[in-house]
Design a protein that fits this description.
The structure is a homotetramer.
Chain A lengths: L6 H16 L6 H8 L5 H6 L2 H24 L5 H17 L7 H4 L9 H28 L7 H21 L7 H13 L3
Helix pairs in contact in A: 1-2, 1-4, 4-5, 4-7, 5-7, 5-8, 5-9, 7-8, 8-9
Chain A binds a DNA duplex through helix 3.
Chain lengths: ~190, ~190, ~190, ~190
DNA sequence: TATGAATGAGATTTCATTCAT
DNA sequence: AATGAATGAAATCTCATTCAT
């Protein structure tokens, strides 16, 4: 028997979209259930409460990003190239509306989550991304494609470029079409060995 | 006769603190008036509504930042150094709790403001900062301290570094004490002429 | 084949415990089914609705109390002694957690039941207890162990002592360990012939 | 300028009536505000939340009872008579619909209150009644109108009679008109010196 | 008999804003 | 300018009950 998405999936999808479009507090149970075409009560039935729903939505996005990252990094020739791919993947993912990445931009996983437990879960999952990027930098330093920099510090700085780029490019009126490419160039210039 | 702050000032101060600490929607009129020790009704009386209050608070912070920026940039020898001072000033300002810079970080001037008019006012004022930074880069390119880069694109990329740095350093658990210095170094390395 | 309790029994046991611990309205179908480790839907399937479930639970407790009462009253030498045994049995039963007597204390069989029919059933069953106590008093007056009192009025007054004792001893912070004994003594003193 | 009751008072009165008539959980904010003819939001504005509202209502009743008790006990000739007056006052108060005593009977101050702080406040205020009764018993033992009993234990037992009487007389179908008098007689018989 | 997803009415609570004083 | 009571719409969350499987 061919089955479409479950109501739980419909709710999660609608929630991701609305969190992405309007942020955490502007997104209400009523709006979510209406967009999903599903009864309001199912939200707490399936997700417990609004915070857990947001956590589920956010983690989902992080997981997909990590997965995409790992896929795209396969077979990359050297560390510098890996960082470039990391950055490009990040920006591409962020711009792809199907990925609902804006959940993590429009909302704030580190301040919309109130309980320590939920924050911890989010942090733990987010950290995978950091580790992947740091691994790229380490590899670059080892293989000589990246100049002799501290891998940890450097990966954090690179991450700041990505985060700042997204906020600028997608949330403010200052970014233009080439911004993401400019940032990638700037990062690569700052890393590559001479 | 020696007079303390007016009630209007007390309210604005309390509002800034609460916006900084808990974001836009977690900050309520009741909390503000209680922290200020002032009657609730004065909020709408003086500021009109919540959005205008936030706009006032945000603009106040932007103005102070612009002022501080102009002061600190006086007598700087060259463009590259000017960019360095810009970045340092930005980070110092952000870390100074008296400045309530977190109003602009914890809240989002570009999504918590709903009306087009309010957004425009905020954008116009914020743009001063961009222009100052762009001026620094132009000067550096002119005086040879910065390599031959497009000043507009470059200033946006630098701004992304600052914005990303703040979000990382102050909102997530990933930044460490040296992060802001690392970002300044990275930016300067990326700009300076060889 | 050795069989454990049926799912229906598990549900009833869990319901009794939760009604005892938290009262009628704090006890939800979800909590009951979770404590019983049994599907939610079985509750309405087996018991109809919440009120019928409560009625079942309450009657169960009343029946066990009546049974225990009859057993303990067998072979009692005289009416006064019978009243003493009645009171002691009542208090012992109330304190025995396995009996879930608190169902009848924490909830209110006469106000949590809304339909007239359900109330009538409860009243009819409860009345057995009154009749037993009244019989004891009658017997005491007949055999001379109890002074010449109106058996009906007296049994109601004695019952008030028991009910008040339970509420005091088990629900408020004012009762102490000896309270139940004190009440028994007070009742016996008030009844016995001189 | 002649002023009627404030809206706060109207709400408290309506709340007391509804708690008395239908118990804690059947009483809703909507019903209260409708009966009071006042906006729903005023309930939390004035009383904080439902539990605090109930606490306020309950304490109000206890205070009035304590006051009435003190008034009625003035000029009583001896301890035994004082106990009789105490019991009569208690029952009269309970039957007077204007006093909303049923707030404390239909609801349960010791289980509808959830926070420890609220429970403590209630207990502290309730305890005044116990102390008054204990004082009466002490006095009776001293002046010879009451036989030589432990005043504390005795006052608790007497209280159980009153509490049980109220529950029986007002909540169950077993009490009749003379019940309260019967209980007073039983208590006095049990206490008086011979 | 057994399961738990599904429903939607209704509960408490929040809150910006209004307004009489 | 100053106060805080008053309003009511809207938010989150609860929950008995139904029903398809």
């Amino acid at each position: 028997m061919a089955m479409g998405p479950t109501k739980k999936e419909l709710l999660l999808k609608a929630a991701k979209e609305l969190f992405s479009e309007h942020g955490y507090s502007e997104t209400t149970f009523k709006k979510i259930s209406e967009r999903a075409g599903v009864a309001l009560g199912l939200l707490t039935h399936h997700f417990g409460n609004k915070e857990k729903l947001f956590l589920t939505a956010g983690l989902d996005v992080v997981h997909e990003l990590v997965q995409t990252m790992r896929t795209n990094l396969q077979g990359v020739p050297n560390g510098l190239e890996a960082v470039r791919i990391f950055a490009k993947t990040y920006f591409d993912f962020a711009r792809n509306p199907r990925q609902d990445f804006m959940v993590l931009v429009r909302c704030s996983p580190f301040s919309d989550l109130k309980t320590v437990e939920d924050k911890d879960v989010m942090i733990r999952n987010f950290s995978e991304l950091y580790e992947i990027l740091e691994e790229c930098v380490k590899r670059g330093v080892r293989d000589g494609s990246i100049r002799d920099l501290d891998p940890h510090k450097t990966s954090v700085v690179v991450f700041c470029n990505l985060v700042g780029g997204i906020r600028h490019g997608l949330l403010t009126p200052y970014g233009d079409d080439g911004l993401f490419d400019d940032i990638v160039d700037f990062v690569i210039y700052g890393l590559k060995a001479r």
